[in-house]
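hey m, so remember when u said the C-alpha cells were messed up on ur end? i reran from scratch. heres the input so u can diff it against urs
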Amino acid sequence: MSPTPKRAYRSGLRATQAEATRNAIIAAAGVVCRAGGWSNATIAAIAKEAGVSKETIHAVFGTKVALIGEMVKANVAEAAPGEHFLDQERPKAIAATVDPDRRIELWAAYLTEIMQRVSPLMSVVRAGSEAEPEMAELYRALHQGRRANLSRVAQSILGEGGSKTALSVESATEILWPLASPEMFTLLTGVGGYSTERYTEWLAGMLKVALREPDRS
C-alpha cells in the first residue's frame, strides 16, 4: 500500500532535515580544522560549532575519522548525489577545449581552486596521521582517490591534440599527481611565497613542459 501524502511529506521533511544537519556538521568541521588544526579537531569542538550534540555527530558519521574524510571530500567540489564532480559542466567544458595549451591552463586553474579549499584540510589529516593509525589510513585513501581523479584529468590533457608525446595516461598521472598535490600547493604558497595566480601559472607551465614535447616536424 502506498504511503499517504502526509506520511510522504513527513518522510521527505525528515530527509531534508537530516541532510541539513549533516551539511552543518561538515561545515563546522571545516571551520574548526582551519582555525585550530588537528589538535583542535575534537568532536566536542565540532559539535559546539555546529550547534548539535556529540551524540548527533556519532549517529550521523560514526567516527571522527569518517567525519574528517567526508569533510575533505565535500570541499573538493559540490556534486549531485551519484554524480562524479569531474562530470559536472565546468570540467566537461575544459575537457572539450580544442586548443591543447588552453586546456592545460584551464585544468591548472580548476585544480588550483581545489587546492585552495583542500590543502589546509589535508594538512590536518596529515597531522592526524602521525598520531592515529586510522587517520594514517584515511590519509592514504584520500591520496589514492585523488590519484584516480587526476588520472581522468591526465586522460583529458592527453586527448586528441593534447600531447605530442608517447606518454601513457598512467605516466602522465605520475607527473600530475605530485605537481597538483595539496602538499606542493602548501609548500609553494605557504613557504615559497607564491600567490595562487603564480601557482596556477607554474602548474600550467610545468604540465606543458612535462606532458607536451615541442613539435619538431
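this time it looks ok to me. The two ends are 72 Å apart (CA to CA). if urs says something different then somethings off w ur setup not the seq
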